[in-house]
Amino acid sequence: REEKKKRIKKTINKQASMGKDYYSVLGINRSADQHEIAYAYKKLALKYHPKRSSADYKTSKNEFDRISEAYEVLSNDFMKSIYDRYGEDFLKSGADDEKSGFKAGYKFSGKSEQIFEKFFLERNSFADIVDDGSACTKIGTMFGHSYGAMKGPEFPRQIDVEVTIECSLLELYNGCNKRVQYERRVLDIDARTTLVKTESKTVQVLPGYSDATKIAYVGQGQEFPGLTPSNLIFKFREVPHEQYQRQGNDLYYTHTVTLLHALQAKAVRIPTLDGRQLSIPVDEVISPQTELLVKGEGMPIHQTACKEKYLNHQKKGNLYVRFNVKFPEVMEHETLQELGKLLD
Question: Which of 4, 132, 167, 335 has its CA 20 to 30 A from that of 190?
Answer without folding.
Answer: 132
